[in-house]
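Example 3.2
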Amino acid sequence: MRTERNLTRSLDRVFARLDREPERPAHIDVPRMSRHRVVLFTATLAFYLAIVWAVVITSWLVRLDWQVMFFRPYQQWPQIHAFLDYYVVLGQRGPTAVMVAAWLGWRSWRQHTLRPLLTLATSLLLLNITVGAAKLGMGRLGPHYATVIGSNEMGLGGDIFPSGHTANAVVTWGILAYLASTPRARRWLSALSAVTSLGVGLTTVYLGTHWLSDVLLGWAAGLLILLALPWFEPLIAKAETALFDLRDRWRARRGATVPAPAVPVAPAPVLLKPRPLPAEQGVAPAREPVSPVRGSRAPIHLAPGPHTARSERTPVTPAGSRRPPHADRLPRGTPQPARPMTGN
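Structure, written as tokens:
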């Protein structure tokens, strides 16, 4: 019983929290392209170009790629293979985008702003454009499809360089740190996203699906997108304003097309007679006057008086009889006079 009561109280607190109307987070500092960020962006871009150049000229980095591939880490430590098969999902674009979008969508709803979702959409769009173009442009084959030992496998129609899993892990989990509302949360989320993306990149090397240089370039590609996001903040703000204006116009148009509700007309007052009080309250109910009822006639088949013999009854002639009266006819029962005797 106590457990159920505590659970009910916890749910009430959660729903009370959801029912509140928080203000839009105007106090949150939107990141800007500061001098420190510009330096980090320039250094990361130089590292990106250096990795590409080292692979193109088949330098020591390519030889290191082949040595790691021949080492076959998945055969050296087979006991962690099953775990890493699931862990690498943290770098797949579909599942990670759904998880992060669900969290940022809840934040957008609670804070009455579209900036978290628009920032995520912008970063994923930049990721698909830049990393996708690099993959198709350089066309490097992966370790499982390599043709010549020691070659860089560039320009052969592959799509492995840079690592999409690694770049996606950097951007998807790093966007949580980018949108953090406090410096402490930003530091913790930055460390967590760095460890997650590092683990995803090394997992692809362990499974043999990527060269080591692919992972290095994937880290640089994802970090470039996160560092360049402040340049797109004005565009995100304009898109948010346009979407809110579009919503307001749609609501106004919808309210104008809905007909006004009909005003109910009050019916005419009806005068009712006062209801009589019940007799058990000590007041006799008033009775309405009743018109006198005519006495009922005796049935025709009954005699109006005492029972008499048929010979003693007075004949009754119905009114309006069609038979003409006869003067010489005597009533029934009257003795007739004697007729004179005539002789022949």
